[in-house]
Specification:
Subunit structure: Monomer.
Strand order of the largest sheet: 22-23-1-24
GO molecular function: 3-phosphoshikimate 1-carboxyvinyltransferase activity
Keywords: Amino-acid biosynthesis, Aromatic amino acid biosynthesis, Cytoplasm, Transferase
Distance between the termini: 6 Å
Number of helices: 12
Pfam families: EPSP_synthase (PF00275)
Radius of gyration: 21 Å
Protein name: 3-phosphoshikimate 1-carboxyvinyltransferase
Low-confidence stretches: none
Length: 422
Amino acid sequence: MTARIRPGPPPAGTLAAPPSKSMAHRAVLCGALAEGESRLSGLAHSQDIDATLAAAAALGAQVEAGETWARIRGACPLRAPAGPVDCGESGSTLRFLIPLAALTGQPVTFTGRGRLMQRPQNVYKELFASQGLPFRQEAGALTMAGPLRPGCFELAGDVSSQFVSGLLFALPLLAGDSRICLRPPVESRSYIEMTRAAQRRFGVVSRWADPNTLDIPGGQAYRPRDLAIEGDWSQAAFPAVLGALAGDVTVAGLEPDTLQGDAVILDILRRCGGRIEPAPGGFRFFKSRLQGARIDLADCPDLGPVLMALGLLCEGETVIVNAGRLRLKESDRIAAMEQELRKLGGWIASDGGTVTVRRSALHPPAGPLWGHNDHRVVMSLTVLAAAAGLPVEIGGAEAVAKSWPGFFAAMRQLGVEVETDA
């Protein structure tokens, strides 16, 4: 699919942030582990969330879903699936489910698409090897078998919080107590806290023994409950940046006291000089004269692409640090944004996990931009084109379906002139 963005009036209006994809993943899995029926409301379907719903069903949960809701009757103990579990392109689905699938004590095979099965799983590979359990990752498939035994699990704290969350889901169901020891620095701590918060709502607890050590009592049970999914700060960052750069945009449906790490977009935009005011149920972002800033992505890596786009329209220089994990996402997000932003005349350079962006005199590209099969790259390029008033075509725009299928409709709601051919 190709998206065509044309210059138009300044973006303005109000839209509701889609429900949090991160919290929805966690709520679905907690419900799938609970003995009884859980009802989730305010759910937004996307390729990633649908992959987690389908995987939960494959492991024995009864799942019924409508447009904005899901009913899940849990299965504990989980059952080994009849065939491979397709995780689509969802890293959360795969990494959350590996320890849970190990609870079945049977071989389980996971498959996926895009770059998913190329993304490193060495943390789990080493963990399974330490317990003498099989773990094999080949082209297009990953096969492992349990059962995991309770004990002490040592992990690097700066690889991905998804490994920590995966263990947090499974370890409370083991007969004995466990401990997760994280080698500092610990990045994306906010995502670990989101997992723990979701678990508490379903009756499962853990505690920090110190800043790098989690104690998980064994013998616990998930309890069913009804839960409304809060708004997604990761997705809200796109209209927020658009408003700060070019218009008057209100994003509703956002919890100000959220655990979501990407709520730091408020602080980042304010440090850049953005004018932001509270609005009913959310925040209003006004066009502002923005300055470059130093931005640390250690706890908010998903903001990386849109902040690179932002930097091109900020006065001076923007330096983004601790961005190395962006190279291991749906695309190498640093290389992808460098390639596409340079087509627009943007000045951007990287050195490992540090990205530097300078204000640039942008121009229409000589040909189409490419989305690199990455939803956040497509959305970031759309925001930049709309804010800069550039006529742009983006190939591979269907990638937005991974997390926000209604993204282009939301942009049109704000007055952005965007058309798609599908």
